[in-house]
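Project outcomes to date are best conveyed with an example. Our students and postdoctoral researchers have been running inverse folding experiments weekly, and each run begins with a structure described purely in tokens. The record below, which covers 208 residues, was selected by the lab manager from last quarter's runs and is presented without edits.
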């Protein structure tokens, strides 16, 4: 018996001696909070900026121009989009637009950036939820390219996490985005881009 088997054997033995009792997890979260629209958007923008994301407000009619400006400012020439994303959103982008297929995730490196929509956003934590619908694409598409331009409709912004989770479909894969990818090493030095895009541009459409 090797060390691994020894450890597992001891764990199994301990569990047999003390079988786990059912544990009831309290779910009495504070729910139903709301904020006026402008206050909600201001709170969200404050959180996103604190996370070092760039934030752009626009109307639905200004979507294409705002996205194009964000992509051009970052020097993106080749952009990937999910199959269900409205092509009109890229109408003013002068670079190359390619619809993502189900190819290997490593091939997504050919994109300078990606443009997606979003499912719901929590203002209190500045967290954007993607749930893998056709407008948001597969998870790898929003994680591999180094630039993510994410469109958030004001009507999908809620106050807190319980309110956001209540709007999600549990069966769908959910990706939570709270600013550009960043972590800290053992010396507490900030390291960006380890788990996803280093640059996050959020386009908030105020009349949708």
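After processing, the design step wrote out the following sequence:
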């Amino acid at each position: 018996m090797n060390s691994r088997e020894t450890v597992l054997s001891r764990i199994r033995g301990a569990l047999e001696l003390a079988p786990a009792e059912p544990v009831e997890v309290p779910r009495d979260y504070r729910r139903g909070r709301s904020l006026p629209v402008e206050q909600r958007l201001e709170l969200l923008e404050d959180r996103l900026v604190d996370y070092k994301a760039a934030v752009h407000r626009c109307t639905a009619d200004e979507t294409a121009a705002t996205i194009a400006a964000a992509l051009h400012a970052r020097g993106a020439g080749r952009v990937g989009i999910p199959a269900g994303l409205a092509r009109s959103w890229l109408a003013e982008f002068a670079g190359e637009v390619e619809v993502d297929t189900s190819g290997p995730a490593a091939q997504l490196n050919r994109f300078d950036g990606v443009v997606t929509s979003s499912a719901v956003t929590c203002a209190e934590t500045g967290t954007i939820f993607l749930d893998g619908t056709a407008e948001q694409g597969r998870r790898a598409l929003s994680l591999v390219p180094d630039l993510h331009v994410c469109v958030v409709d004001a009507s999908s912004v809620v106050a807190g996490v319980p309110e956001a989770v209540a709007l999600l479909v549990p069966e769908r894969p959910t990706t939570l985005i709270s600013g550009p990818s960043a972590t800290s090493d053992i010396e507490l030095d900030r390291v960006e881009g380890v788990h996803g895009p280093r640059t996050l541009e959020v386009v908030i459409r105020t009349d949708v």
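The longest strand covers residues 147-153. The helical segments are 3-17, 37-50, 63-73, 139-143, 161-166. The training component of this project remains on track.
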